UniProtKB/TrEMBL annotation:
Family named by the database record: Belongs to the short-chain dehydrogenases/reductases (SDR) family.
PANTHER family registered for this protein in UniProt: 3-OXOACYL-(ACYL-CARRIER-PROTEIN) REDUCTASE, 3-OXOACYL-[ACYL-CARRIER-PROTEIN] REDUCTASE FABG
Superkingdom of source: Bacteria
EC assignment: 1.1.1.47
Alphabetized GO MF terms: glucose 1-dehydrogenase [NAD(P)+] activity
Name of this protein: Glucose 1-dehydrogenase
InterPro entries per UniProt: NAD(P)-bd_dom_sf, Sc_DH/Rdtase_CS, SDR, SDR_fam
Keyword annotations from UniProtKB, A to Z: Oxidoreductase
UniProt KW DNA-binding keyword: no
């Protein structure tokens, strides 16, 4: 636990399920104020908010399309209206629609880029603008993937966005380090989430996945949440521009075909 996080305000995009939900709930344990963003899963977002409140934090849910400036501005404004500050931004929202690259529709390519990468840029820009104007030494955390370094077939759009997040993280970290604003990334490996459930449900598929993980176990959202809490805490005050891989060692096998 990190006592200095208590009372600080965090925005978590895609907070209704999976990794985003895990991070938001961990922030609740840290007694933080959390803006839980969702697009379609209002019920999941409300469950996240209730879990945060039960653990001593405060929470508000907001429906927002993070690929748009309007959606991002509504998240920032909600944080200010309810809690008066933006101390932490977690760019977690993201998705992929696998397809052979020669069949990948431009519309699908664009939507994945809009949500996964452009949305992270817009949110970072708005948060940085407010932090800079108000002299807040905040923290931005991008949720990337091992696929920022490991190519994955039929996921060229997803891989491009995660590679882009790496450079977004490093460029912004360099630009705002002197102002005390830290920007980092977490790159999860295989994590059991609603969007990635087959490894737990199908024994054969799970075994194939485990062969790619040196630790021979699949991660949980709580593993990512623990890393997130540390990275935005004072314990990581001298850490910026880095990607923390939370992957059970998966990136030790970069030549494998994923």
């Amino acid at each position: 636990m990190y006592p200095e996080l208590a009372g600080k305000t965090a925005i978590v995009t895609g907070g209704s399920k999976g990794i985003g939900k895990g991070i938001a709930e961990r922030f609740g344990k840290e007694k933080m104020n959390v803006v839980v963003d969702y697009l379609t899963d209002a019920e999941g977002a409300e469950e996240t908010a209730q879990a945060i409140q039960k653990q001593g934090g405060k929470a508000v849910t907001v429906q927002a399309d993070v690929s748009t400036e309007t959606g991002i501005k509504s998240l920032i404004q909600t944080a200010l209206d309810h809690f008066g500050s933006v101390d932490v931004l977690v760019n977690n929202a993201g998705f992929s629609e696998p397809a052979p690259s020669d069949e990948l529709a431009l519309e699908t390519w664009q939507r994945v880029l809009d949500v996964n990468l452009t949305g992270a840029f817009i949110a970072s820009r708005e948060a940085l603008s407010w932090m800079k104007a108000n002299k807040v030494k905040g923290s931005i955390l991008n949720i990337s993937s091992v696929h920022q370094v490991i190519p994955k077939v039929e996921n060229v759009h997803y891989g491009v966005t995660k590679g882009g997040l790496k450079m977004l993280t490093e460029t912004l970290a360099l630009e705002y380090a002197e102002q005390g604003i830290r920007i980092n990334s977490i790159a999860p490996g295989t994590i059991t989430t609603p969007g990635n459930p087959t490894q737990e449900q199908d024994a054969e598929e799970k075994e194939k996945t485990l062969q790619k993980i040196p630790m021979k176990k699949i991660g949980k959202p709580e593993n990512i949440a623990a890393a997130a809490a540390w990275l935005v805490s004072g314990e990581a005050a001298y850490v910026t521009g880095t990607t923390l891989f939370v992957d059970g060692g998966m990136t030790l096998y970069p030549s494998q075909l994923f």
